[in-house]
Amino acid sequence: MPELPEVETTRRGLAPHLTGATLSEIHVRQARLRHPPDATALSTLCGQTVRALERRAKYLLMHFDTRTLIVHLGMSGSLRLLPEGEPLRPHDHVVLGFGPQQLVYHDPRRFGGFVLAHTESLPDHALFRHLGPEPLSDALTGDYLYRLSRGRRQGVKPFIMDQRIVVGVGNIYATEALFSSGIRPDRPAGRISRTRYDCLAQAIKAILSAAIEQGGTTLRDFVNGHGKPGYFAQTLQVYGREGTPCPACQRPLRLLRLGGRSSVFCASCQR
DNA sequence: ACTGGCTCCTGAGGGC
DNA sequence: TGCCCTCAGGAGCCAG
């Protein structure tokens, strides 16, 4: 999935085409998603215009006249804009018609979905209430991570992947940011110095920003709003490269399993 | 309060 | 060729 850079890439690709467009029809072809789309509720958006397309964490927010349609891409989701009448493929679960173009939600693993919410109460919405700050905002600092991590024995990698701590950092970018800042993924979060958290916070921002610039990371099937892959995969230093030489010291990269997620790291460069 | 483990689902890839 | 196992970009829920 889509981590933050992939959702942001999708948002940037779609915004110029969807902003100001009026929804003409909605087809829910498969409602059994993690967040099941309610076809009846969604149909009340027909005739309304998209006022803005925003992102919060890994959620895409489609603001209509009276309500906001929240879209999550789960692990394998993508949105693409097609000419009306273009043939659909397997796992194209929801189609939003905007006159001559259609926005197609595709999600083989069905971990994503759609939630309709009242725009004015979005910050209080159950999906958003407990989310941490945006990683590219000034709220994410080394000092912030340092303070929240005190007393925690959990590994630093699951710690920075916890959306209550900071949003948008998934397995790929957590792995890369820890390599970049020289911190072992299994080091207890509470046993890392303020200085090293400064370095980690900067690495998270730098890597997410670079990934957005490159259109995100395509491992299997991520595509932006126009069906194009992202190019950050070629920039990845360690993710998915266990057993191959560390780009810095040439020693073989090792694999750990932390919180059920694979974590590649260099035992020599990361302490 | 934290933490790790399990779960939802489909598809790809490796070993035999 | 085919079968079975493991793993994959997320994240909510549960028990200890």
Provide a descriptive summary of the structure in words.
This protein is globular. The model has no long low-confidence stretch (mean pLDDT 95). The longest helix has 20 residues, at 194-213. A hairpin with a 2-residue loop joins strand 6 (92-98) and strand 7. The chain has helices spanning 4-18, 39-43, 142-149, 156-161, 171-181, 194-213, and strands spanning 25-28, 52-56, 59-63, 67-72, 78-83, 92-98, 101-106, 113-118, 254-258, 261-265. Helix 1 runs parallel beside helix 6 (194-213), helix 3 crosses helix 6 and helix 5 (171-181) crosses helix 6. With 271 residues, the chain is of the alpha+beta class. It has a four-stranded antiparallel beta sheet with strand order 1-6-7-5. The protein binds a DNA duplex (16 and 16 nucleotides) through helix 5.
Number of helices: 6
**Which parts are unreliable, with pLDDT below 50 for 5 consecutive residues or more?**
none
Q: Give the distance, in angstroms, between the N- and C-terminal Cα atoms.
A: 28 Å
Strand content: 15-25%
Helix content: 10-25%
Order of helices and strands: HEHEEEEEEEHHHHEE
Describe the secondary structure blueprint for this structure.
Layout: H1 4-18, E1 25-28, H2 39-43, E2 52-56, E3 59-63, E4 67-72, E5 78-83, E6 92-98, E7 101-106, E8 113-118, H3 142-149, H4 156-161, H5 171-181, H6 194-213, E9 254-258, E10 261-265
Antiparallel strand pairs: 1-6, 2-3, 3-4, 4-8, 5-7, 6-7, 9-10
This protein binds a DNA duplex (16 and 16 nucleotides) through residues 1-3, 6, 32-34, 58, 72-76, 91, 107-112, 151-154, 158, 161, 163, 170-173, 217, 219-220, 222, 239, 258-262.
